[in-house]
Amino acid sequence: MSDDVSTRFDRLPATAAERTVGERATREEVLDWWDERFGIDPAVFAEHSFWERGAGKVWAFRGDLESPVDIEGLGMTVLRTRQEHWKPTLEAVQRFGHHATRNRIHLSREQAAAFMAGEDQEMEWDGDWGYLIVTHDLAGEPEPLGVGLYTYDELKSMVPKGRRREL
To answer: Which of 53, 52, 34 lies closest to 43, judged by CA?
Structure first.
C-alpha cells in the first residue's frame, strides 16, 4: 500500500496501528531510534511533530498542523528512512546531537578539520559501528559537527559536498 506524494507533507502516524502507508515510519519508531542509537531521550522531541514528504525523508516541525500540508518546506529534515540503516541528517545532529549519550565520537582539532573537509580517516573506536555523531570542542564544550559513518577502523565523513569547509 502506498500513498506517498512527493509534493506534500504527511504527519507520521503515532504508532504502527495507525499506519496507513505500508513503509512509513511512525513517531514511536522515530523516537525509539533516536533513543536506542544515540541515547536522546524522547522528551527532547516532545514539542515536535514528525512529517514525511515523499518516501522516507522525515522532517521535524516544532509545533503541529493539520495533515496533509501542501507546502515546499516544514521545519527541518532529521532522518532518512526506508533504507537498510536509517541515517540522521547533519542538521538534526547539529540541532539535537548535544543530547546524545552514546555513539558520539570526539575529534581532535586536526581530525575535525579533516572531517569538515569531507575526508575519511582511519581511527580506532571501541563503540558501535554505523552512523555516529561527530563532535569537537568549541568554546570549551563538545559541539556536534555532523554525521560520520564508522566501519572497519575508518570514520567516513557524511558532510554533504556543499557544506564542506576547509578549516
So the answer is: 34
